[in-house]
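Customer ticket, subject: "Can you confirm the structure for HxlR family transcriptional regulator?"

Message body: Hello, I'm evaluating your service for our small team and ran a test protein. I'd like someone to confirm that this is what the system normally returns, since I don't have a reference to compare against.
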Amino acid sequence: MDDPTLEADVFARGCLSRETLQSATSRWGVLALAALAESDYRFSALRRRVDGVSERMLSQTLQTLERDGLVVRTVLEAIPPKVEYSLTPLGRAVADHLTSLIRVVEEHVPTVAAARIEYDARR
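Agent reply: Thanks for trying us out. I re-ran your input and got the following:
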């Protein structure tokens, strides 16, 4: 959606909300936002928290989330300079919903595991 006066509709192909939803719910976007909901992180600590993400992928994810106004990148005065990431108020609102979803998924891991076994047995 190029015209900000138009109503947001995530189902519309060109709507900005769709792009933002895609960024926030991408594989690494969800995990970065959920981690930042716990605490502000420096890049290297965030990379350790989000196990398995490459430096390049985390950097791209954080840039996208920053561009969408979900994350703030702060350069700390130090030698060498250090960078810290935190959530904006919008990022906090999105992360709160994502962490609720994460809790539901984690609570139901045994159900998912059983469903997978049953599914695989039918194949």
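A couple of notes from the result: The longest strand covers residues 71-76. Residues 19 and 32 are 17 Å apart (CA to CA). Feel free to reply with more questions.
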